Amino acid sequence: MFTGIIEEMGRVSAVHVIPNGGQETKIECSFAGNCHIDESISINGACHTVVAFDDHSFTVQSIEETLRKTTISELKTDMLVNLERSMTLQKGIEGHLVQGHVDTVANIVRITPEETGWLIDIALDKEYQDMIVGRGSITVDGISLTVAEDLVDTFRIAIIPYTWEHTNLATKKEGDGVNLEFDVIGKYVVKYLAKMNKK
Questions:
Q1: Distance CA 70, CA 15 (A)
Q2: If you ran DSSP here, which 8-state letter would residue 185 be given?
Q3: Which residues contact residue 113 at a Cβ distance below 8 angstroms, ignoring those fewer than 6 apart?
């Protein structure tokens, strides 16, 4: 379980295809030396398990299902990724409850700079539109954000300078894909209501 508050940006130092499918990714970051085997780390919003580490980097493996449903398959050497270690009972929940289970990949359609921040419009397939609520929570590439506007076929998020500078959003371009995880409570409500409507 995570909070969507990015701990730091890591740098991809190596990407290897695993024989018979899958991908192994090595990521450099400041907390690598404090990792442990089997630790859960969110990488751009997708939960992964540490399989190896040293003082400078940690390594994870992604199976085919993860590569199909996230942007992890698009990682390349020197790319910056958003990192968050799993939350502990000693830490406050400063974002919202995030599972690290990506629901879908969506594309950025517009990035609009403003005087005090940035507006980012993200396309959304029709099947997921019930998951979006204005001023509700959403996770974009692992970042806990608030839906600024629920638009037709898209939704908008507003990015403050701190988030822009301390996550990989500043590296994104129009057309890039991002991992989305919808609010877990909202997902249960939508599923419950759908079942009730079928009765």
A1: 15
A2: H
A3: none
CB 138 within 8 A of CB 41: no
Q: Which residues contact 136 (CB under 8 A, 6 or more apart)?
A: 146, 147, 183, 186
CA distance 171 to 155: 20
Give CA separation, 13 vs 50, 52, 178, in Å. 15, 14, 20
116-171 tens-digit pLDDT: 999 999 999 999 999 998 899 999 999 999 999 999 899 999 999 999 999 999 99
Asked if the model's pLDDT at residue 93 lies above 80, the reply is: no
- Which helix (H) or strand (E) segment is 164 a member of? helix 161-166
Q: Report CA-CA distances (Å) from 171 to 35, 98, 111, 159, 168.
A: 26, 23, 11, 13, 5
Pick left, alpha or beta for residue 69 (phi over 0 → left; psi -120 to 50 → alpha; otherwise beta): alpha
Give CA 141 to chain center in angstroms.
Answer: 2
For the chain, the straight-line distance linking the first and the last C-alpha, in angstroms and rounded, comes to 33
Give 192's pLDDT tier (boundaries 50, 70, 90): confident
